[in-house]
Recover the amino acids of this structure.
C-alpha cells in the first residue's frame, strides 16, 4: 500500500508538466527543464536521493536521449537527401495522382504516405510533410491537419524505425532493478520483453486500427463537406477497409516475425503497393468524385496564411527520378536493418560482444578505462559507462547497432544514386541538425526527469518503492481488475502531455509493468496497451498540433483540432481497452 502523501509527491513532476505544457501552453523547451528540476527536488527531499545518484540518473537519461537523437538525425538526413534529389516528388506523385477524389487522396496521402513517413522518421515528420501536401492539393488547411494527424497514428508505435519500442520500452525496463530482476527470474531479457510487447501492440492495432482510413475520411467529409453527413465516407468504405487490411496484415506479420523496427515501414510499403495497383486497375474507385464546397463558402477558420493550391503547385510536371529509383534507399535500409538484427554474429558484434568468426575472436571494443566517476568501455561505435559517479547505475550507446547508423548509410547511398553534390549533401545534414535543436532540449530534460523518477529508490537506504512504482501501485489500487481497460488511456495521457510515444513509454512503461504485476495480470499485454496508447495520444498532444498547424500557416486553432481529434482518440482507447481486457482475462491469461 502507498499513502496519499507519497502519491501526491510522486506525481509532482507530471503535474508540473501538465500545468506548464497543457495549462499555460509553454513550449517543451521551457517546461521540461522545470519538470526535471521538480523531480530532482522531490527525489532529494522526499526519497532521500543523494546528489551523486541524482546526477547519475540524469546522465543515464541524457545517454538515452542521445540514442534517440542519433536515430532521428539519421532519419532526417535521409529524408532531406531524398527531398533535395527530387526523389520524394516521385513518391508524392505515386500517391497523389491516382484520383482527383478527395476521399481517395486521404487514403493514399494522409494514410499510406503518412504511415510510411512515420515509420521512416517519426517525431512530427508525417504532419510536417503531409499536411502541406494536402493543402497544395486543394484541401482546407484545417482539414489537411486533421487528416494528417489521424492518418499516421497507427504507425506511431513503430515510428522512426522502432524507436518507441527499442528505446521507449527496452531501455527503461532494463534500467529498473525491480523489473529487471522479475524478467531474469522468468528467463526473459529486456530486449525479448520489448519484442513481445511490440508484437502484442501490433495485434491491438490490427484489430482496432484497420478502420483508421475510414475514420480519417469520415472526419473530413462530415466536418468539411457541403453538408454534415458520413454518406460520402460510406461510399468508399470498401476502399477504406481494404486499405486498412492491406496495411494491417503485413504490419502485424512484421511485428511478430521480423523485428520491431519494420512494422510501419513494411505495412505502408506493401499496403500502398497493393492499394495503388488495385485503384490503377480500376477497382474500388468511387463512381462519383467527391470534393469540398467552393472555397468562397469556407469558414474563416478553415484557412490560414497559405492558400490551398492545386496539384501542380506541389507536384512538378516531370519528377527528376523514377518511382523505382526513389524507393531504392528505403529498400536498402530494410536490407541493412534485417542484416544487422537477424544475422549472427554480426548483430552481437555491433552490440559490443566478442564473437567467434573465421576461427578467431572479433570485437569492436577498443579499451576499458577506470576513473573516479565510473568505468568506461570504449568501442569503435559504442560507449558504455558503468558505475556512473560511483553509483550502480549504467548506460551505453551503441551507435553502430541502433537504426541511426543505417539511416545515414542509406542517405549516403541515396546521395550517390541521385548524384547529390557536396553542397546539397551539406544542406541535408545542416537542415537535419537544425531541426534537432528544439527536440534535443526537450528530450534531454524529459528523459532526465523520467530516469530520476525511475531510479529514486535505487540508492542505499532508499524507500522500497520509487516514484514510478508508487504511482503504479496507486493506479492499480484505484482501478483494480478494470485496470487493463484504462492501460491504453494512461499511455495516451502520457503522450498527450509530452507529445511523444517514446517518452510516454519511458515514463509510463515501467508504471504499467509494476501495476500489472501487482494485479497478477499479463505484463506483456498491459505494456503492449501502453505502447498503443502512447501512439494515439499524439492526436491531441498540444505541441504536435501546434507544429502541424504551423506547416499550413494556420495559428490559433489548436483547441478546434484537439476537439475534433478527441473522436478518434476515444474510439481507439475504448476498443483497445476492450481487447486488452479480453486478452488479459479470457484469451491469453497465461502470457507473461
Amino acid at each position: 500500500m502507498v499513502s496519499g502523501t507519497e502519491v501526491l509527491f510522486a506525481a509532482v513532476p507530471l503535474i508540473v508538466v501538465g500545468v506548464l505544457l497543457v495549462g499555460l501552453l509553454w513550449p517543451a523547451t521551457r517546461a521540461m527543464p522545470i519538470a526535471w528540476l521538480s523531480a530532482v527536488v522531490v527525489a532529494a527531499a522526499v526519497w532521500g536521493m543523494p546528489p551523486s545518484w541524482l546526477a547519475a540518473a540524469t546522465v543515464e537519461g541524457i545517454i538515452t536521449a542521445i540514442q534517440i537523437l542519433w536515430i532521428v538525425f539519421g532519419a532526417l538526413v535521409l529524408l532531406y537527401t531524398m527531398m533535395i534529389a527530387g526523389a520524394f516528388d516521385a513518391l508524392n506523385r505515386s500517391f497523389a495522382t491516382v484520383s482527383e477524389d478527395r476521399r481517395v487522396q486521404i487514403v493514399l496521402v494522409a494514410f499510406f504516405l503518412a504511415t510510411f513517413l512515420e515509420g521512416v522518421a517519426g517525431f512530427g515528420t508525417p504532419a510536417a510533410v503531409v499536411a502541406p501536401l494536402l493543402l497544395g492539393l486543394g484541401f482546407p488547411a484545417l482539414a489537411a491537419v486533421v487528416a494528417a494527424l489521424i492518418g499516421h497514428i497507427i504507425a506511431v508505435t513503430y515510428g522512426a524505425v522502432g524507436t518507441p519500442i527499442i528505446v521507449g520500452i527496452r531501455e527503461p525496463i532494463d534500467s529498473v532493478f525491480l523489473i529487471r530482476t522479475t524478467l531474469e527470474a522468468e528467463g526473459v531479457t529486456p530486449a525479448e520483453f520489448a519484442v513481445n510487447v511490440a508484437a502484442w501492440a501490433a495485434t491491438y492495432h490490427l484489430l482496432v486500427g484497420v478502420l483508421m482510413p475510414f475514420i480519417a475520411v469520415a472526419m473530413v467529409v462530415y466536418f468539411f463537406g457541403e453538408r454534415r453527413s458520413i454518406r460520402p465516407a460510406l461510399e468508399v468504405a470498401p476502399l477504406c477497409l481494404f486499405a486498412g487490411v492491406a496495411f494491417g496484415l503485413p504490419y502485424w506479420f512484421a511485428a511478430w516475425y521480423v523485428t520491431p523496427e519494420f512494422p510501419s515501414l513494411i505495412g505502408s510499403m506493401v499496403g500502398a503497393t497493393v492499394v495503388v495497383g488495385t485503384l490503377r486497375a480500376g477497382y474500388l474507385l468511387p463512381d462519383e468524385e467527391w470534393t469540398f464546397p467552393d472555397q468562397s463558402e469556407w469558414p474563416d477558420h478553415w484557412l490560414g496564411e497559405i492558400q490551398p493550391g492545386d496539384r501542380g503547385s506541389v507536384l512538378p510536371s516531370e519528377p527528376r527520378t523514377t518511382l523505382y529509383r526513389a524507393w531504392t534507399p528505403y529498400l536498402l535500409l530494410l536490407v541493412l536493418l534485417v542484416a544487422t538484427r537477424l544475422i549472427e554474429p554480426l548483430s552481437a558484434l555491433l552490440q559490443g560482444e566478442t564473437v567467434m568468426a573465421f576461427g578467431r575472436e572479433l570485437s569492436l571494443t577498443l579499451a576499458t578505462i577506470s576513473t573516479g566517476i565510473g568505468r568506461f568501455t570504449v568501442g569503435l561505435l559504442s560507449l558504455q559507462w558503468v558505475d556512473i559517479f560511483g553509483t550502480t547505475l549504467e548506460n551505453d550507446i551503441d551507435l553502430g547497432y541502433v537504426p541511426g547508423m543505417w539511416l545515414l548509410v542509406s542517405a549516403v547511398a541515396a546521395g550517390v544514386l541521385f548524384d547529390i553534390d557536396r553542397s546539397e549533401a551539406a544542406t541535408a545534414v545542416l537542415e537535419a541538425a537544425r531541426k534537432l535543436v528544439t527536440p534535443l532540449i526537450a528530450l534531454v530534460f524529459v528523459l532526465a526527469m523520467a530516469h530520476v523518477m525511475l531510479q529514486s529508490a535505487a540508492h542505499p537506504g532508499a524507500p522500497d518503492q520509487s516514484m514510478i512504482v508508487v504511482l503504479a501501485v496507486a493506479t492499480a489500487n484505484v482501478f483494480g481488475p478494470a485496470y487493463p481497460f484504462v492501460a491504453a488511456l494512461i499511455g495516451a495521457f502520457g503522450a498527450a502531455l509530452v507529445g511523444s510515444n517514446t517518452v510516454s513509454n519511458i515514463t509510463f512503461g515501467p508504471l504499467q509493468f509494476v501495476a500489472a504485476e501487482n494485479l497478477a495480470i499479463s505484463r506483456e499485454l498491459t505494456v503492449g496497451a501502453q505502447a498503443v496508447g502512447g501512439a494515439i495520444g499524439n492526436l491531441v498532444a498540444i505541441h504536435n498540433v501546434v507544429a502541424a498547424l504551423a506547416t499550413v500557416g494556420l495559428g490559433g486553432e489548436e483547441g478546434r483540432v484537439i476537439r475534433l481529434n478527441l473522436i478518434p482518440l476515444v474510439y481507439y482507447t475504448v476498443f483497445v481497452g476492450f481487447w486488452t481486457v479480453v486478452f488479459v482475462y479470457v484469451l491469453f491469461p497465461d502470457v507473461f
Q: What stands out?
A: The chain has a mean pLDDT of 89. Strands lie at 355-357, 360-362, 365-371, 374-379, 382-386, 395-398. The first helix runs from residue 4 to 23.
